[in-house]
Amino acid sequence: MIEIPSRAIREAIEIIEAEADRPWTVSALAERSHVSVRSLQQAFQRHLGTSPMAYLREVRLRRAHHDLLESDPSTVTVGSVAYR
Which CATH number fits domain 7-83: 1.10.10.60, 3.40.50.150, 3.40.50.720, 1.10.10.10? Predict the structure, then answer.
């Protein structure tokens, strides 16, 4: 039986996906998700097998990879994509 992620983890994922460019901390994500830091960390580990910050890093890397593939290498540098 597959367990459905809790409201808090769904909310945190939506926040990360919508605002991945913000300088998030686990504390800020937990506050926005209305749970404790520990509860958020445990929920991510239980449902996704990763931490909130590792999930955020993956989202950012996925977007950077996409941006690099879609960009014109004569006008966009790896550094500029990484900075974003």
Answer: 1.10.10.60
Quick count: other Cβ atoms within 10 Å of Cβ 69? 7
Integer Cα distance of 74 and 47 in angstroms: 41
Three-class DSSP category at 15: helix
DSSP state of 71: S
Half-sphere exposure of 3 (CA within 13 A, CB side): 9
Interatomic CA distance for residues 22 and 54, integer angstroms:
15
**Token reading at 9:** 């983890």
- pLDDT tens for each residue of 19-74: 999 999 999 999 999 999 999 999 999 999 999 999 999 999 999 888 787 777 77
State how far the Cα of 44 lies from the Cα of 10, in Å rounded to an integer: 10
